[in-house]
Write a structure and sequence with these properties.
The chain is of the alpha/beta class. It has two domains: 95 residues, no CATH class; 284 residues, Alpha/Beta hydrolase fold, catalytic domain (Rossmann fold). It has an eight-stranded mixed beta sheet with strand order 1-2-4-3-5-6-7-8, sandwiched between helices. The radius of gyration is 23 Å and the shape is globular.
Length: 419
């Protein structure tokens, strides 16, 4: 009995290790539940590596007190576990060295502008510079005496419905500061404005006013209500800019997954009256966008050549039907259809091992941005990086967030020079 359990645990560890590098679920036939399980397991084992190895080690110690300790099966299993750990540590090393390769890409995109950026926040260069404390205790990253967090500020109240946002800002503000509008992910069906809090805390300590907003969820509402809600938040932010010491002329939209889709549309549909009912003449301009694991393809999941049934089921709830039933909605929800000469700069980040969003659809959107010659934009495909890497301050997040910060600093510097 003990032997069977040990072999089962060893087989499961091997399987979960391989799933980090290539997800076991197939998008063409997997359900939403299967995709989510594959994603969560890959993310936990890959991005929470120290916790995973400690769990493995603890279970192996427990097995060492049983009768299989002196058997060849235990030795074989031990070797398998050590090999899995070794492979996962190779991934950790690759992630640790990822910023060097990204920096080269950014120099190719922006040249001297990128090289002239001076930021006092840098990525860890080795295992001794990793913030292990926040890795094991993510809540620790929210405790910073230099900033204040104003929770649950109501930005829209209608028929008993209250939409709220959180504000992260430095203490003792002496001048108008640039802003970040953060939109959470959750497939337009769920989500929390507490997502990516560690990023917002970091940026607040660097002199940014950060707003983390939420919106109504499908299937109670269909698109474009989600986008309208976020624009309402932006309108409220600008109306209260002086009170928060915000420079209302420089606001960046940022989001992950479905939040990245809405952040993209915020940048692409600025001042479009059809998405601003009741505040059509208000300024909803955005000065740049950071998209992390964004959703850009909406017709493909229904195509027999590129089936994606899990995503198609979600989109039917978000849009109120299939593309042939709601063609106008699907046309409006597709970001590529809104690219114009007024489109602000984009920074697009996408993990190559993303289990939920195919990197191919992100590359397609990037090609259109390049064709339209949108200036000061960049696309970073991230090897061995999973969906939602920025939710907690893991090593992946610690290595990539400085790149985002530097991009925002560059955009703000360019804006400051023009002003």
């Amino acid at each position: 009995m003990i032997t069977s359990i040990f072999l089962l645990w060893t087989s499961l560890s091997i399987f979960l290790t391989l799933n980090v590098f290539k997800n076991f679920s197939k998008r063409s036939r997997s359900s939403v539940k299967t995709l989510l399980i594959s994603y969560v397991l890959g993310w936990v084992v890959g991005d929470l590596l120290p916790q995973w190895i400690l769990l493995n080690l603890g279970i192996l110690i427990i097995f060492s007190f049983t009768e299989i300790y002196f058997s060849s099966i235990f030795l074989f299993g031990l070797i398998c576990h050590f090999l899995c750990w070794f492979i996962l540590f190779i991934r950790l090393w690759i992630i640790l060295n990822l910023p060097k390769r990204i920096n080269i890409k950014m120099i190719n995109f922006f040249g001297i502008k990128w090289q002239n950026i001076h930021s006092d926040y840098s990525n860890p260069k080795n295992i001794f510079e990793i913030n292990w404390h926040s890795w094991f205790n993510p809540l620790n990253s929210l405790e910073d005496p230099r900033i204040e967090i104003l929770r649950d500020q109501v930005f829209h109240n209608e028929n008993g419905l209250q939409l709220k946002l959180d504000i992260y800002r430095p203490k003792n503000i002496k001048k108008k500061l640039p802003g970040i509008l953060q939109i959470h992910g959750g497939a337009w069906l769920t989500g929390s404005k507490r997502q990516a809090s560690s990023f917002l805390v970091r940026m607040a300590t660097k002199g940014w006013i950060c707003y983390s907003v939420t919106h109504r969820f499908s299937p109670k509402v269909v698109f474009p209500e989600h986008l309208i809600d976020v624009k309402r938040a932006l309108n409220w932010i600008r109306e209260n800019a002086d009170f928060h010491s915000l420079d209302k002329n420089f606001i960046i939209s940022k989001g992950g997954s479905s939040g990245a889709h809405l952040a993209s549309l915020m940048a692409l549909t600025q001042n479009q009256s059809e998405f601003q009912p009741g505040f059509e003449k208000e300024d909803t301009s955005i000065q740049g966008c950071v998209s992390i694991s964004g959703v850009f393809e909406f017709f493909g999941p229904f195509d027999e050549k590129t089936p994606f049934p899990a995503k198609a089921n979600i989109l039917k709830k978000v849009c109120g039907g299939r593309p042939n039933e709601e063609p106008v909605c699907y046309k409006k929800i597709t970001p590529a259809n809104w690219i114009s000469i007024d489109t602000p700069p984009f920074l697009i980040l996408q993990g190559e091992t993303d289990a939920l969003i195919p990197i191919e659809e992100t590359k397609k959107f990037w090609k259109i941005l390049k064709y339209k010659k949108i200036k000061s934009s960049a696309f970073l495909n991230l090897p061995l990086v999973h969906h939602g890497f920025d939710i907690f301050p893991t090593l992946t997040e610690q290595c990539i967030i400085p790149i985002i910060e530097n991009f925002l600093i560059m955009l703000h510097y360019n804006y400051y020079k023009r002003a």
